[in-house]
Request: fold
Amino acid sequence: MSATTAMEVNVEARRILAVSISKLYASRTQRGGLRLHRSLLLSLVMRSARDIYHSSRESEESSGAHSAPEEPMDTSSSPGEQARLSEAQHEPQPALNSAELAPEEPDNAEDCCDSDITEDKENLSPTKQSRKRRGKASAAPDFLPSKRARLEPGEERYAAPVGSCRAGAGESLTTLSLNRVIPAF
Amino acid sequence: MYVFEEERKSYLKADIISTVEFNSSGELLATGDKGGRVVVFQREQESKSQPQRRGEYNVYSTFQSHEPEFDYLKSLEIEEKINKIKWLPQQNAAYFLLSTNDKTVKLWKISERDKRPEGYNLKDEDGRIRDPSTITSLRVPVLQPMDLMVEATARRVFSNAHTYHINSISVNSDLQTFISTDDLRVNLWNLEITDRSFNIVDIKPANMEELTEVITSAEFHPQQCHTFAYSSSKGSIRLCDMRQAALCDKHCKYFEEPEDPSTRSFFSEIISSISDVKFSHNGRYLMTRDYLTVKVWDLQMENKPLETYQVHDYLRGKLCSLYENDCIFDKFECVWNGSDSVIMTGSYNNFFRMFDRNTKRDVTLEASRENSKPRAILKPRKVCVGGKRRKDEISVDSLDFSKKILHTTWHPHENIIAVAATNNLYIFQDKVN
Reply:
C-alpha cells in the first residue's frame, strides 16, 4: 500500500468525519428532537472514519521509514481490521452519549459546556485523578455526559491546547477526542 | 411551514404524505401527512351507467389527527407528522383506525350521519332554548333525512408510554390488543384501556454508551395472536412468542444474513439497517427492506433469506454522496400483494419497483403526471447503469433524489396500488378490457 493511497483514504476519512460532525450538530436543532436511530448511524460512520483516519495517519508517518502494510476500508477486511471494527461496535460511543441526551435530559447544552471547561483542566494535568467516586454500582446515570473520553487500548491522552479545533484540520482531528468535538463547534 | 419551489409548482411541507394504508376490505384508503392530517378515500360503487369510472377513489373524510405539541420537561417539540395508520377490521357500520405520531397513538372512529332529529320541544331549530312561557304543546323530535355527513371522532388516546420516537404500530389478530414500537421498546396495549400499557420488549442497555442497535419496526403475525416480529438497525429480525414470558427479551427465532466482507464500506451499517418488515398474508414469510434490497425470509429458515431482490444496486457506488445529501437515511417501505406472489417497493425519481416472486420478472414504473395521463397504461422505465444510454433510459446521474417513493400500499384482494410521491397520491389499477 503506497503512501499516496493512504493519503487518499486519509482525506476521504477526514471529509466523512467532518460531514458527520456537521450532521450530528445540525440534528440537535431539528424539530421533534434528537432521533436516536439517526444519531446511532452517524456515530457508527464517525467511528469508522476516525479509525481509518488514525490508522492511515500511522501508516503515513511510518511510510517515510518503510512501507507499512495498510488496511483501507474498501477492500476485504483482514482479521486485524475486523477485530478493531468489532471492538468499535462493542465500545461505548462518547459522541452518541452526549448527542442522544436530548430525549432524556433537558439541560444537555449546559452539561456539554461544563464538560468542555472541566475537560480543559483535566487535559492540562492528565495525571490528576478525578475526585468523584466511580464504581460499578455508582456509575454515572445515563442522562449525564461522561466527562472523559473512553480510551481505546494503546491510545494516549493528548494535551490539547484550547481552541485547537480552529487550527489546521490535520492536527485538530488527531488530538481532539470525539466527545469534545461536538461542544467545540 | 416551509414552501418549496419545484418546477414552478410549490407545495407546503405539511402536505407531504407520510403514510398510506388500505383497510382490510380495500373499500377505504387512508393517508397521513406531515401536517398531522388524515384523509380517507372511499371507493365508488361500480355503476352500469358509467362503466369507465370503475371503482374510483374519492375523498370520504378529512380530519386533523394530531397537533404539534411541546414537551416542557425535555424542552422538545413533538412533531404532528403521522408516522403510521393501521385500520381495524370492520365490525359494525363505523370504521376505526389507529394513527400515530412520534409519541401518541389515537383511535379514530369514522361514522356516517344521514339523519337529523328535528322538532325539539324545548329548543328551536337554531338550538336556542325556547322561552318556557311560549311552549303550549308537546312535540317529540322526528328523525329527518339530511345530506350525508362523515364525522371522525377520537375515541381513545394512548399517550405517555414512549420515551423515544414511535416508528410503527400493529393491530393484533385478536382485535383486542395492539403494539406500538419506538427505538428501544415495544409496548402492548388493550384497545379499551388508555392509561396502561405493558412493555414486552426492552433493548435499552443499562449504560446508554453501550447502545449498538435500535428497533426499526415491529409487526404482529397475521394469524398467530401470540407472535410478533421486530427488525433492527443491524439488519436482523427477531420473532417473539408472548406465551414464553411477560418480557419478550429472548427471541424464539433470529433471522440474519452474514455480511459479505467484500462489500464492506464506511456505510455498511447504514445500508443494512432494516426500514420495514412485513409478514406475508399467509403468515409463512417475512419481507424486509434495507437501503438497497428487499428480502423475503421463510419463517422456517433463519440463517439466510429465501429471496433477495436488488431495488437500485446502481446506487452502491454513490453511497458517499447519498450520505452527504441525507438520502442514505431514507426509510423505504415494502408491501405484498393479496396473494403474496408480487412484492413492491419505492425508489428515487418517483420510480417504484415490483418483483414477481414466481416468474422472477421485475418492472420499474414511474409515478408522475407528465409521463402518464389518467387511464393511460404505465410504461416500464429503465435506469442505464453504464455504457451507451438507450433512448428511453435514464442515467443514474439524472435521477432526481428529491423525488422519492417511500410509502406504498396494495389493495388486499385486487390489483390496485396507491403510491405516495411527496405531496401527491397516485392510484393505479389493472387495465380492464
Chain A touches chain B at residues 12-13, 16, 19, 23, 31-33, 35-38, 40-41, 44-45, 48-49, 52, 73-74, 76-77, 82, 89-90, 92-94, 96-97, 100, 102-106, 139, 142, 146, 150 (CB under 8 Å). Confidence is low (pLDDT under 50) at residues 66-127, 136-144, 159-185 of chain A. The longest helix of chain A spans residues 36-63.
